[in-house]
Every structure is written in structure tokens, then in C-alpha cells.
TrEMBL record:
It is found in: Nucleus. This is Splicing factor YJU2. One of its GO terms (cellular component) is U2-type catalytic step 1 spliceosome. Signal peptide: none annotated. It comes from Rhizophagus irregularis (strain DAOM 181602 / DAOM 197198 / MUCL 43194) (Arbuscular mycorrhizal fungus). Residues 240-304 are annotated as: Disordered. PANTHER family: SPLICING FACTOR YJU2. Component of the spliceosome. Present in the activated B complex, the catalytically activated B* complex which catalyzes the branching, the catalytic step 1 C complex catalyzing the exon ligation, and the postcatalytic P complex containing the ligated exons (mRNA) and the excised lariat intron. Residues 283-302 have a biased composition (Low complexity).
Length: 323
């Protein structure tokens, strides 16, 4: 397989390249080539649009009698992909471009027109400077001014970029976070002011005085919130003139029970000294039990017994009346 990759060929010693006859071709001979369209065009026959870069099998020939500084100009023949009409275009070495010749029109290209207009203005400017030296001086002054402005703008851009490179990213982020916190606080303050204004507008008396709300610390006592009947159940009053229905019903229940008609127990404490000895009176009923202590003098025991008898008699008479 190595003989297939050699570069040197064998030439016999009697080989004479001048003896080989040269092939003669016509000057207008055409060659088949494969190419892509150099610009977008529109077929004149059917109106088909052919975009730039579409591949075609074309024929190439040399244009006779047309050269540009001894540079040959070539012509290409292609066919429309829709109607098979012949389209030709040729090279333009002067403008390094192609020129539409027959069968299709080139699409409008604004950048190409601007370039051509710029070239024309440049030619006119050169002609004016040749005949008028003052105009040439003025044009050079304007060009130098434009160049200085461009350099100043470039220096400004460079200094800005250098300043941006020196900026610390962490410091910048912290600054942004602080700004967000300040904004949130200001928004909260605005909301609080709006709420206070709304409260002042709502809580207003007929006379125009604002109503003050009760402080959270000044809470009322639970006993003050209770009704009179609930207070009587918690703290019953034992009096001779009981007029409440609940006390009457309790007295009826106590009369039916002989062992606890009054529910009063008197305990005497003995003391060695002659001072007044306290007597503790315990009263119990169905709801609760209350105890009272009475300091009495030992010499006045008879008076106390008499007063207790009168009290108990009155209590009994009230219970009889209720029956």
C-alpha cells in the first residue's frame, strides 16, 4: 500500500515535455463551476426571490474586451429555481463586488447606497480642495477637531472603566442593602401615620373631642363585672330580714334537716388570763362556708347568749313566714 502514497513519479531519460502537444481552447469557452449567489436578487420572469448564498451549478466564462488594470472580468450563468430562466452576473474588481447583468435585479441594500454616497462625497471634496486651498485648510481644521473630540470621549470612557474596576463589590452590595432597610423603615412610618390619622378620624365625638381608648394595663376587676346575683352567691349575707328568694329556699332545705337546722356552731376557747376570749362562729350552707371571730369579755357571756337566742329566734321566725 505504500506505493499509492508516493509523490515522486518516474520519468524516463528520453522524456521531453516540449514534445507534448498543448490543448487549444476557444477564448469564449465556458466552464462548469459550483458557486453561491453573491447577493440577494429577484427573477424578472417569475418574480422568485433568490437569497444570498444559495448554491447553483453555473457556467463561467471570461468577458472579452473588459479588464480592470489587467484584471480579467468573469461572467456567470445560472438558472432560476422556479422558471429556469437564465440569469447572468459578472465580477466588479473596481468595487470588489458583483454586478447584475441580465435576468434578475439586485435587491436594495441601504448600506451599499451609503457607501457609494460616501465615496462620491469624498471625490467631490477632493476636487474642491484642489481648486481652493482655503477650503482644504478649513476641511483639515474640522477633521482635527473631530479627531480631538473622539480622543476626549475615549479618555473619558477609559477613566470611567478604571473607576468602576476599583469599586468594591461587597461595599456596593452593603450600601444597597442599607438603602433597602431605610426605605422599609420609611414605609413603615408612613403606614403608622396613616393608621393614626384614620383612627383620629373615626374615633371622634359629636362635640369634636377625640375618644381615648383604655390602656391595656387598666383592666377592670372581675368582681366588678359580676352581676348582683352572682355576688350574693359568692358572698352570702346572713341577716334577720332575708328577702332574697335564694336565701328562703336554703332556709327551707335546712328546716327539713333536723341535724343542721341553723348550721351554726359556737366554739369557746379557754384562756388562762382574764382577758377577753374570742369566740369563733362558723356558718355553713350548701354553697360555701364563712367563719367570723368575735372577741367577747368572759363577764358578758350571759349577754352574748341572750343576743344569740334572739338572733336565732328571729331567723326561725323568718323561716316560718317563708313556709
Amino acid at each position: 500500500m505504500s506505493e499509492r502514497k508516493v509523490l515522486n513519479k518516474y520519468f524516463p531519460p528520453d522524456f521531453d515535455p516540449a514534445a507534448i502537444p498543448r490543448r487549444k481552447q476557444a477564448k469564449d469557452a465556458q466552464h462548469k463551476v459550483r458557486l453561491m449567489t453573491p447577493y440577494a436578487m429577484r427573477c424578472d420572469t417569475c418574480g422568485e426571490y433568490i437569497y444570498k448564498g444559495k448554491k447553483f451549478n453555473a457556467r463561467k466564462e471570461t468577458v472579452e474586451g473588459e479588464t480592470y488594470y489587467s484584471i480579467k472580468i468573469f461572467r456567470f450563468y445560472i438558472k432560476c429555481p422556479r422558471c429556469s430562466a437564465e440569469i447572468t452576473f459578472k465580477t466588479d474588481p473596481k468595487n470588489t463586488d458583483y454586478v447584475a447583468e441580465h435576468g434578475a435585479q439586485r435587491n436594495f441594500e441601504p448600506w451599499r447606497e451609503e457607501r457609494l454616497a460616501g465615496e462620491e462625497s469624498k471625490l467631490l471634496k477632493e476636487l474642491e480642495e484642489e481648486n481652493n486651498p482655503m477650503k482644504a485648510l478649513e476641511n483639515r481644521t474640522i477633521d482635527s477637531k473631530i479627531e480631538m473630540d473622539v480622543l476626549d470621549a475615549l479618555d473619558e470612557i477609559r477613566t470611567r472603566n478604571a473607576r468602576n474596576e476599583r469599586v468594591d463589590a461587597d461595599a456596593l452590595l452593603d450600601k444597597l442593602v442599607d438603602q433597602d432597610i431605610v426605605k422599609e423603615k420609611s414605609q413603615e412610618e408612613l403606614l403608622e401615620e396613616e393608621d393614626s390619622k384614620l383612627a383620629k378620624a373615626i374615633f371622634h365625638n359629636v362635640d369634636g373631642d377625640s375618644v381615648k381608648r383604655i390602656a391595656d394595663d387598666d383592666e377592670p376587676d372581675l368582681k366588678q363585672l359580676l352581676s348582683d346575683s352572682a355576688k350574693s352567691l359568692l358572698l352570702p349575707k346572713f341577716s334577720s330580714n332575708a328577702k332574697n328568694d335564694e336565701e328562703g329556699s336554703l332556709a327551707k332545705r335546712k328546716q327539713k334537716r333536723p341535724g343542721s337546722e341553723l348550721g351554726v356552731v359556737v366554739k369557746k376557747r379557754k384562756q388562762a388570763s382574764t382577758t377577753s376570749s374570742p369566740i369563733k362562729v362558723e356558718s355553713s350552707n350548701l354553697s360555701n362556708t364563712t367563719s367570723t371571730t368575735i372577741n367577747i369579755d368572759p363577764n358578758s357571756s350571759n349577754k352574748i347568749s341572750n343576743s344569740l337566742g334572739a338572733l336565732l329566734g328571729a331567723y326561725g321566725s323568718d323561716s316560718d313566714n317563708d313556709d
